[in-house]
Amino acid sequence: MFRRATLRADMPDEAAMPRPASSSQRGYAARRKVLIILALAVPLLVANYGMYAWSSLAVRKELNSIAQSVEDQASNALGSAGQTATEVANARYSQRGCFLGTVQLLQLKALSSPYVRSLNLVRDGKISCSSVGGAVNIPVDLFAPGLRLQTGSVLLMRSHWFGLEAPGIAYVHMRDDHDGVIAVMHEQFFRDMTTLPGKDRYRSVVLRLGHQYVYDEGGMKDSPPKFVNQWVAKRGPGDLEVFVEASDKLRMMYLTDSVVTWNLIAIAIGLLLALAVNFYYVRGRSFERMLRLAIVNRDIVPFYQPVYHAEGAVLEGVEILARWYNRGEGYISPDVFIPYAERMNLIDALTLSLIQQVRHDLEHSFRLPPGSNVALNVPPSMFDKPEMIAALEQFSRFLQGNGLRLLLEVTERQFVEHADTERIQGFFDWLHQQGILIALDDFGTGYSSMGYLNRFSFDYLKIDGVFVNGIGASPTAEGLLDTIIQLAQKLGMKTIAEKVENKEQVLYLVDRQVNCIQGYYYAKPVSAAELAQYIPDQPPRPIVPDPVPSWLADEERAD
């Protein structure tokens, strides 16, 4: 079913090591180029979009500020005229008759107000006395057509009844239903309010008084203004309202003022990001070469962690673990270089190197007791490669020739990702025919599918230290641990508990008939030279050791 390939005795040199396919290299370069382009382009896009949004807010803010200013000026003018009219109405001048003294008093009051042109007394719907015309008898409808005799009413008068040349703005204050005052203000004051400096910034400013409109270019209209620009601010309640329309250039002014600064900042950020991306990829390629050289030079060496039978603490075997000490970087964690080796298609070369070094160690450094297991972690992707299958078969034959058995450990996560029921089960059957055992590693920490656990023929189930650590500390973890142990036993699988560190955990696991124990309580991962001290010359004591090894508190816990 599976093709075999001859395994060379010597490790290939770096040039012959597996490398990513040319398409992978092109993909690597393409990703790097795309990320650098994005690093440069994204800050520019964000900056210009932000500048566009910021300019919109700035234009609106300026228009609202101008509208508020015009509204405040108009409100002050109306308020001043209203105060003067209120004072005259409350003095009841209309009840004194329109004598010379009354007219003079009205004139003095008009002169004291900066905005008022004339004060006109209203009685029973008619103008009875005026600071300009003296004693008169003019209906209000004729004096100011359309003006409501209601306090606060405002009307633009196109001409003045008493012959004043400029139009005015009438403001009404009624003391009661019969008596009141009409203050006529200078229309020019309000027109000046709408005439703003910086004409290139604002297309038009319009002031609504009542139902009529004062335009900045002069003149009054009864119809509301029509704006061609979308940027318009509007403020003011009741009979007073202000419209400010931005010019076509206003927004561009804000953009022009900030475009250079914003884009220089964006370019600087983009360059920094591009350098970071490039550094990441260059460092990645540097790390790849460093990893290749480490494999060629056999700087990544096998360490061995003893595995003991739970009852009697008899040595059951060892697990092979990769350790890498780099002179420049120090110890590099397997959690770093093994996933990287998988991504860069170097995991096969690393596995072959470890196998050859283990063979050398077994021949020259130590002898394991007959019947011991030698556990090796392999990714399921290796099952599709004839040269790796041949290497595993030859290694298994070598171990069997020394009275040992090969135990392949497959992690739960990797297994689920590559699981193909018929292909994997067929391969497992072939492994068993070769006398190779299979263990499911890190069970319970990943996907934990009961279906594939039942479908495939695993010999061992390795219980992760996450559950072991909960012994005596977490009833929930203990319950999960008991369930995993019972499940494995019902499926006829042996169990190995990892990361066991104290006697309480050992006794708990022995009481639940766990088969094997691996962890710092018995031994840490050690080199081939150090492993000899854990291999007994005679049968070990059939008791659980009490003392914790002296190095337990000092050594870094790493599996």
Automatic annotation (TrEMBL):
Gene: ycgG
Annotated protein name in UniProt: cyclic-guanylate-specific phosphodiesterase
Sequence ranges assigned to domain EAL in this UniProt record: 284-539
Bias kind Pro residues: ranges: 538-548
Membrane-crossing segments per the record: 260-282
SMART domains: EAL
Membrane topology: Multi-pass membrane protein
Reactions catalysed, as given in the entry: 3',3'-c-di-GMP + H2O = 5'-phosphoguanylyl(3'->5')guanosine + H(+)
Chain positions covered by the region annotation Disordered: 1-23, 538-559
Lineage: superkingdom: Bacteria
Pfam families, per the entry: CSS-motif, EAL
EC numbers on record: 3.1.4.52
Subcellular location: Cell membrane
